Amino acid sequence: MREEEEIREQYEFLIDQLESEEMRHEGVRQMFTHYRRALGWVLEEEHM
User: Distance between CA atoms of 18 and 11, rounded to whole angstroms?
Assistant: First the structure.
């Protein structure tokens, strides 16, 4: 499993990408949104 710091960096990167103006295509936004949720669940499970 990846280290928590690496997962957090990827999570923050995805949030920045989702908020950027270049992410206008709805299909890509949905894909990143689902990926971001999955990373959030992983982080939550690590701290339970």
Answer: 11
pLDDT at residue 15 greater than cutoff 70: yes
CA distance 40 to 17: 16
Kindly state the tokens that stand for 1: 């499993």
Q: Which two tokens stand for residue 36?
A: 């971001």
- Record the pTM: 0.45
* Cβ atoms of residues 33 and 18 within 8 Å: yes
How far apart CA 48 and CA 44 sit, in angstroms, is 7
What is the distance between the alpha carbons of residues 44 and 8, in angstroms, rounded to a whole number? 11
Task: Please state the domain extents for the chain.
Answer: 4-46
